[in-house]
Amino acid sequence: MTDCIFCKIINKEIPSSVVYEDEKVLAFLDITQTTKGHTLVIPKIHVQDIFELSEETAADLFSRIPKIARAIEKSDPAIKGMNILNNNREAAYQTVFHSHVHLIPRYDDQDDFSVHFGNHMADYTAEDLQQIANQINKQMEE
Fold first, then answer.
1. Are 6 and 42 in contact (CB under 8 A)?
2. Bigger pLDDT: 24 or 115?
3. Interacting residues of 70 by C-beta distance below 8 A, sequence separation 6+
4. pLDDT tens by residue, 92-118
5. What are the residue boundaries of the HIT domain, all occurrences included (predicted)?
6. Has residue 44 been placed in a domain?
7. What is the set of active-site residues?
8. Any idea what DSSP says for residue 109?
9. 90 CB-near residues (< 8 Å, 6+ apart)
10. In sequence order, what are the beta bridge partners of 104?
Protein backbone atom coordinates (compact mmCIF):
# COMPACT_ATOMS: atom_id res chain seq x y z
CA MET A 1 0.00 0.00 0.00
CA THR A 2 1.58 3.27 -1.10
CA ASP A 3 0.01 5.70 1.39
CA CYS A 4 0.33 3.57 4.54
CA ILE A 5 2.70 5.13 7.05
CA PHE A 6 3.60 1.73 8.52
CA CYS A 7 4.37 0.31 5.07
CA LYS A 8 6.65 3.31 4.55
CA ILE A 9 8.38 2.52 7.85
CA ILE A 10 8.78 -1.13 6.78
CA ASN A 11 10.28 0.04 3.46
CA LYS A 12 12.64 2.45 5.30
CA GLU A 13 11.06 5.45 3.58
CA ILE A 14 10.33 6.93 7.01
CA PRO A 15 12.77 6.60 9.92
CA SER A 16 11.81 4.69 13.05
CA SER A 17 13.41 3.48 16.26
CA VAL A 18 13.44 -0.26 15.65
CA VAL A 19 13.53 -2.61 18.65
CA TYR A 20 12.99 -5.89 16.74
CA GLU A 21 12.91 -6.99 13.12
CA ASP A 22 12.82 -10.24 11.20
CA GLU A 23 11.45 -11.27 7.80
CA LYS A 24 7.80 -11.21 8.97
CA VAL A 25 7.52 -8.70 11.83
CA LEU A 26 8.77 -5.23 12.75
CA ALA A 27 8.64 -3.64 16.20
CA PHE A 28 9.46 0.01 16.74
CA LEU A 29 8.87 2.75 19.29
CA ASP A 30 5.58 4.62 18.94
CA ILE A 31 6.36 8.30 18.39
CA THR A 32 3.66 9.25 20.92
CA GLN A 33 5.39 7.33 23.75
CA THR A 34 2.19 7.09 25.82
CA THR A 35 4.59 5.73 28.41
CA LYS A 36 8.36 5.34 28.05
CA GLY A 37 9.05 2.29 25.89
CA HIS A 38 5.64 2.24 24.14
CA THR A 39 6.28 -0.10 21.21
CA LEU A 40 4.27 -1.05 18.12
CA VAL A 41 4.50 -4.55 16.67
CA ILE A 42 3.35 -4.93 13.06
CA PRO A 43 3.26 -7.58 10.38
CA LYS A 44 5.42 -6.69 7.39
CA ILE A 45 2.58 -7.64 5.08
CA HIS A 46 -0.06 -4.92 4.78
CA VAL A 47 -3.29 -6.00 6.41
CA GLN A 48 -5.80 -3.49 7.77
CA ASP A 49 -6.92 -5.07 11.02
CA ILE A 50 -7.60 -8.27 12.96
CA PHE A 51 -10.58 -9.04 10.72
CA GLU A 52 -8.28 -9.34 7.69
CA LEU A 53 -5.40 -11.09 9.46
CA SER A 54 -4.76 -14.63 8.23
CA GLU A 55 -4.00 -17.34 10.78
CA GLU A 56 -0.44 -17.55 9.45
CA THR A 57 0.19 -13.79 9.72
CA ALA A 58 -1.45 -13.74 13.16
CA ALA A 59 0.84 -16.56 14.29
CA ASP A 60 3.88 -14.68 12.97
CA LEU A 61 2.81 -11.46 14.70
CA PHE A 62 1.58 -12.73 18.04
CA SER A 63 4.35 -15.31 18.53
CA ARG A 64 6.95 -12.49 18.69
CA ILE A 65 5.09 -10.41 21.30
CA PRO A 66 6.26 -12.24 24.47
CA LYS A 67 9.94 -11.93 23.46
CA ILE A 68 9.55 -8.21 22.67
CA ALA A 69 7.54 -7.60 25.86
CA ARG A 70 10.21 -9.31 27.99
CA ALA A 71 12.92 -7.20 26.35
CA ILE A 72 10.99 -4.01 27.09
CA GLU A 73 10.45 -5.08 30.69
CA LYS A 74 14.14 -5.91 31.18
CA SER A 75 15.15 -2.56 29.66
CA ASP A 76 13.83 -0.54 32.60
CA PRO A 77 13.60 -1.76 36.21
CA ALA A 78 10.90 0.85 36.90
CA ILE A 79 8.39 -1.05 34.70
CA LYS A 80 5.73 -2.66 36.90
CA GLY A 81 3.49 -4.16 34.20
CA MET A 82 2.39 -3.87 30.59
CA ASN A 83 -0.80 -3.37 28.62
CA ILE A 84 -1.03 -5.16 25.28
CA LEU A 85 -3.59 -3.45 23.10
CA ASN A 86 -4.92 -4.01 19.59
CA ASN A 87 -7.46 -1.50 18.24
CA ASN A 88 -9.51 -2.51 15.21
CA ARG A 89 -11.46 -0.03 13.11
CA GLU A 90 -12.35 3.55 13.94
CA ALA A 91 -14.98 2.70 16.56
CA ALA A 92 -12.21 0.96 18.55
CA TYR A 93 -9.79 3.90 18.15
CA GLN A 94 -7.67 2.50 15.31
CA THR A 95 -5.99 5.48 13.64
CA VAL A 96 -3.41 3.78 11.42
CA PHE A 97 -5.09 1.20 9.22
CA HIS A 98 -2.25 -1.33 9.16
CA SER A 99 -2.76 -3.96 11.85
CA HIS A 100 -0.59 -3.33 14.89
CA VAL A 101 -0.25 -4.24 18.53
CA HIS A 102 0.67 -1.70 21.20
CA LEU A 103 2.98 -2.79 24.01
CA ILE A 104 2.57 -0.10 26.67
CA PRO A 105 4.84 -0.39 29.72
CA ARG A 106 3.20 0.55 33.00
CA TYR A 107 5.12 2.32 35.72
CA ASP A 108 2.32 3.11 38.17
CA ASP A 109 -1.33 4.13 38.14
CA GLN A 110 -0.36 7.76 37.42
CA ASP A 111 1.61 7.17 34.20
CA ASP A 112 -0.92 8.84 31.84
CA PHE A 113 -2.54 5.69 30.47
CA SER A 114 -5.78 4.11 31.55
CA VAL A 115 -8.24 1.50 30.40
CA HIS A 116 -11.82 1.40 31.63
CA PHE A 117 -13.78 -1.82 31.80
CA GLY A 118 -17.38 -1.10 32.69
CA ASN A 119 -19.10 -3.63 34.93
CA HIS A 120 -22.44 -4.55 33.39
CA MET A 121 -22.79 -7.88 35.16
CA ALA A 122 -26.21 -6.93 36.52
CA ASP A 123 -27.47 -6.34 32.96
CA TYR A 124 -27.09 -9.98 31.84
CA THR A 125 -28.56 -13.17 33.19
CA ALA A 126 -26.83 -16.51 32.77
CA GLU A 127 -29.34 -17.22 29.99
CA ASP A 128 -28.47 -13.94 28.24
CA LEU A 129 -24.78 -14.81 28.36
CA GLN A 130 -25.44 -18.29 27.00
CA GLN A 131 -27.49 -16.85 24.13
CA ILE A 132 -24.64 -14.48 23.23
CA ALA A 133 -22.15 -17.36 23.43
CA ASN A 134 -24.39 -19.49 21.20
CA GLN A 135 -24.62 -16.70 18.59
CA ILE A 136 -20.83 -16.39 18.50
CA ASN A 137 -20.35 -20.16 18.54
CA LYS A 138 -22.64 -20.55 15.53
CA GLN A 139 -20.37 -18.17 13.58
CA MET A 140 -17.30 -20.23 14.50
CA GLU A 141 -18.73 -23.11 12.49
CA GLU A 142 -19.20 -21.10 9.31
1. yes
2. 24
3. none
4. 999 999 999 999 999 998 898 888 899
5. 5-115
6. yes
7. 100
8. T
9. none
10. 83
